[in-house]
Specification:
- The protein folds into two domains: 115 residues, Aminotransferase class 4, branched-chain amino acid transferase, N-terminal domain (D-amino Acid Aminotransferase, Chain A, domain 1); 148 residues, D-amino Acid Aminotransferase, Chain A, domain 2.
- The protein is globular and about 50 Å long.
- Helix 5 packs across helix 7.
- Helix 4 links the parallel strand 7 and strand 8.
- The protein has 281 residues and is an alpha+beta fold.
Length: 281
């Protein structure tokens, strides 16, 4: 028997199948929302303060006044929902904050609502993919860096189009580029290259998301004595790197085996993931 799962909508629990939104939802109509996805390990949400800091940054950038509860109270509601949905090991939490009310592009008021979702996933700790990914570039749409590219809004059409291109070309992922043809990020992940005891990753000014896992992988690598360079990453650097991996909050690290005809190994990636799991467990 499949257990019922619940969501938290503005402090009230609903079964996840219940219809709780109206057609006037501004997140649906205009993408007027920010969100965070948080990994759960051993039944506990990890890096919550970092996620809350980015959520607040996103709300500030979207000129949203604070939701009517503190981040401590929001944390309590996340923990309660994890327990309610019987998530004792690995899981995924998503928080979405959206503006409510009438109006077209210009909202008529600044009332906010929030939704918390929590679902179990099969893996507790982060596990490296056995088969390396096969990737390519998606260049039809260019990312133009702004402060908005650093946060997670529900305006993600470039990522959606990149995902469609990935599927049409039988790839595992694709890298997006900016107006200078520099590498920005993958569909839902930050990008790291490894060569000669050095990690290279696009800087935030290149247009990538200010990833929570990205931040902690940089800290872990530096603690291991690995140099980290944040800056421009070019296509030629992809061909020169020994290893390439992608990071996000839910999967942790995914290693890439092929970029076109280029092949990568994963020895350093394995060691970085081991240290990262020590941090989160």
């Amino acid at each position: 028997m499949i257990e019922k799962r619940y969501i938290n909508y503005d402090g009230f629990l609903y079964e996840e199948e219940e219809k709780v939104f109206t057609i006037d939802n501004r997140a649906f109509k205009y993408g007027d929302a920010v969100f965070e996805t948080i990994r759960v390990i051993n039944g506990v949400p990890v890096f919550v303060k970092d996620h809350f800091a980015r959520l607040k940054k996103g709300m500030d950038l979207l000129r949203m006044n604070a939701i009517p509860l503190t981040f401590e109270e929001l944390h309590e509601k996340i923990v309660h929902l994890i327990k309610k949905n019987n998530i004792k090991k690995g899981g995924r939490v998503r928080i979405t904050v959206f503006r409510v009310g009438e109006g077209l592009y210009t909202p008529k008021n600044d009332t906010k609502s929030y939704v918390i979702e929590a679902i179990p996933i099969s893996k507790n700790l982060y596990v490296l993919n056995k088969k390396g990914l096969s990737i390519d570039l998606y260049t039809d749409i260019r990312i133009h860096p702004t402060v908005l590219t650093q946060i997670k809004t529900t305006n993600k059409i470039p990522n959606v189009l990149t995902g469609i291109y990935k599927t049409e070309n039988n790839l595992d992922d694709c890298l997006m580029v900016n107006q200078n043809n520099h590498i920005v990020e993958a569909i839902s992940s930050n990008v790291f290259l490894y060569k000669n005891n050095t990690l290279y990753t696009p800087s935030l000014s290149e247009g990538c998301i200010d990833g929570i896992t990205r931040k902690h992988i940089i800290e872990v690598a530096q603690a291991m004595g690995i140099n980290v360079i944040e800056g421009a990453v070019t296509g030629s650097m992809l061909l020169q790197a020994d290893e390439l991996f992608l990071t996000n909050s839910i999967a942790g690290i995914k290693w890439v085996a092929h970029y076109r005809s280029k092949q990568y190994t994963n020895e350093a990636t394995i060691e970085i993931l081991k240290k990262f799991n020590e941090v989160v467990s």
